[in-house]
Write a structure and sequence with these properties.
Number of helices: 16
Radius of gyration: 44 Å
Shape: elongated
Number of strands: 14
Distance between the termini: 121 Å
Order of helices and strands: HHEHHEHHEHEHHEHEHHEEHEEEEHHHEE
Low-confidence stretches: 277-382
């Protein structure tokens, strides 16, 4: 509206019209002001948000640069680690040489046999690796054989595998010199020496990422189960651990689920004849003649594996002169005369042979005394005079285990220390043979497999009271085989002999390599009983 029109409107309009017009214009000005204020306020908030986003962008840019730098650094470290991992990879073979023995043919020619053993062992491992992801790489093969060389040589010599201990030493030296990566290590005297070395080296190589495979030859010894069980659920360990079976593996090793191989061209598949390996053959015992029965007894004593006959079979064979019965202190059969056999023999026509008096020795043997002349053999009936005594049969040995398969020891009486003359005489005899010691097998089990070759004392005569003291002393020692020991003649302890009431803080059974070997009253309740010569346990 032009100024002229406004002045005409103002001159002609009334006061009320002017006031209404003013109110209308003022309202428009207010709306315009509110709109302007709202726009300015929104612009201010946008400016603040833009500033914040600029700061975030700057931070993100710096972070991205930092992350990129860290990523490049980590990628470099990763490449270095991969280079280290892939640098000098190898596999290792750990052999408990006390139980895993090389073939007789290799040991009997120690010079060339050691080199052949090394070649076959290396080739056997390579053949196995061909079927694994490692087959495409020519990996070094490290071999460590741990053995008590003196005792091993003695065992091989007593079984006529080698002629002298020098043959075993020569084999070990040649084996070590055959390859730079091969070592035959003499751990010295002591049953635990080889076991300890095997455990330490197993742990060492398992923790070494450069070691791709560990071939473990110790399946003959249940003592290794504790270390191996710890890695059953570890997929990396299952991929790397391979069990090397020589003599038949104990059932516990098969249950672990690790891969298992054999190298029968390198190691013996059976124990030595003078080694105790508990098997329970289910063979029938046929009737024997006098001659064949004595031969059977000899073959059993010399290392055969015949078990005791079933009671029903001992009552059969009425036409046989000699049947088999267990001798005292052993499960090996020995001949004794049966009444049915005597009746059958007396019914036969008489022969002009000297009269023989036959009696048992009380432990399953036979004593035959012939007369000095044929004249003394003649009689009216022409029959032989035979005196028969009933053979003394000793109860078979047993082992009891609790529900956790922990061997339970029978209670033992503590020898009196006051007014006991056996204490003083035992100590005097023990001091006399120092630094040697009494042989546990000879004095407590009644038989030592080493015989005259044993380096422990067999010559001292001990009274029953002194043997009781020695038995108690042996029971204060922890059995090397631990709570799973299955040796029926074991005279050591498999848990504290004062259980369940032991209160000693420094008790040697508290911190063993098998853990705390103290049992509660509930733990000492037997659950199963194994009987020597019987293949299955009795549930109690």
């Amino acid at each position: 509206m032009s100024n002229n029109l406004l002045s005409q409107f103002a001159s002609s309009a009334s006061i009320e019209d002017l006031n209404a017009r003013f109110v209308q214009l003022a309202k428009h000005d207010g709306e315009r002001s509110e709109l302007t204020y709202g726009v300015l306020k929104r612009l201010y908030s946008y400016e603040k948000e833009i500033h914040r986003l600029e700061l975030d962008l700057e931070d993100q840019t710096k972070s991205r640069m930092t992350y990129q730098q860290d990523a490049r650094k980590l990628e470099g470290e990763k490449r270095e680690i991969e280079q280290l991992i892939n640098k000098d990879p190898y596999v290792v073979v750990l052999v408990d040489g006390d139980g895993s023995k090389f073939l007789d043919s290799l040991l009997q020619d120690p010079v060339s046999g050691a080199d052949i053993a090394a070649q076959r062992l290396k080739q056997g491992i390579k053949d196995y690796l061909k079927n694994t992801p490692l087959g495409a790489v020519d990996l070094p093969i490290l071999v460590r054989v741990f053995a008590n060389l003196n005792d091993l040589a003695r065992s091989l010599r007593l079984t006529n595998i080698i002629e002298s201990a020098d043959d075993m030493r020569t084999f070990a030296e040649q084996f070590t010199n055959s390859r730079a990566e091969f070592d035959f290590i003499n751990v010295g005297r002591g049953k635990e020496n080889a076991d300890s070395k095997m455990r330490k080296m197993f742990k060492h190589f398992l923790n070494n990422f450069q070691c791709r495979k560990i071939f473990f030859a110790g399946c003959h010894d249940n003592g290794y189960l504790h270390e191996l069980r710890e890695h059953v659920g570890d997929p990396d360990a299952k991929e790397r651990i391979v069990l090397l079976e020589t003599t038949p593996a104990e059932p516990g090793f098969v249950a672990l689920g690790f891969p298992m191989i054999r190298l029968d061209t390198v190691f013996r598949s059976e124990p030595l004849a003078n080694e105790k390996k508990y098997t329970y053959p289910n063979r029938p015992l046929p009737s024997q003649s006098v001659h064949s029965s004595v031969l059977l007894e000899k073959s059993t004593v010399d290392g055969g594996s015949w078990g005791p006959p079933e009671p029903s079979r001992r009552q059969q064979s009425p036409v046989s002169l000699v049947t088999m019965a267990p001798s005292e202190g052993t499960v090996s059969p020995s001949p004794t005369l049966s009444a049915a056999a005597l009746a059958a023999s007396s019914a036969q026509p008489p022969t002009p042979t000297p009269t023989a008096s036959v009696s048992t020795s009380g432990n399953g043997g036979i004593s035959i005394k012939y007369p000095s002349s044929y004249a003394a053999a003649g009689s009216a009936s022409g029959h032989q005079n035979i005196n028969v005594q009933t053979a003394k049969i000793k109860n078979p040995k047993t082992i009891e285990y609790n529900k956790y398969n922990h061997r339970l020891d029978s209670p033992i009486k503590v020898p009196s220390f006051n007014n006991n003359p056996s204490q003083a005489t035992y100590k005097a005899k023990a001091d006399k043979i120092k630094p040697n010691a009494f042989c546990n097998h000879y004095y407590l089990a009644g038989k030592c497999k080493w015989g005259d070759e044993c380096d422990r004392d067999h010559s001292t005569k001990l009274t029953p009271g002194e043997i009781a003291i020695h038995r108690y002393k042996a029971r204060t020692s922890v059995c090397p085989a631990g709570p799973s020991c299955d040796d029926y003649s074991c005279c050591l302890s498999h848990h504290c002999l004062h259980d369940p009431h032991c209160t000693r803080v420094d008790c040697k059974f508290k911190n063993t390599r098998y853990g705390d070997l103290h049992l509660s009253k509930e733990d000492m309740v037997p659950a199963t009983r194994w009987t020597e010569g019987i293949a299955f346990p009795t549930t109690l």
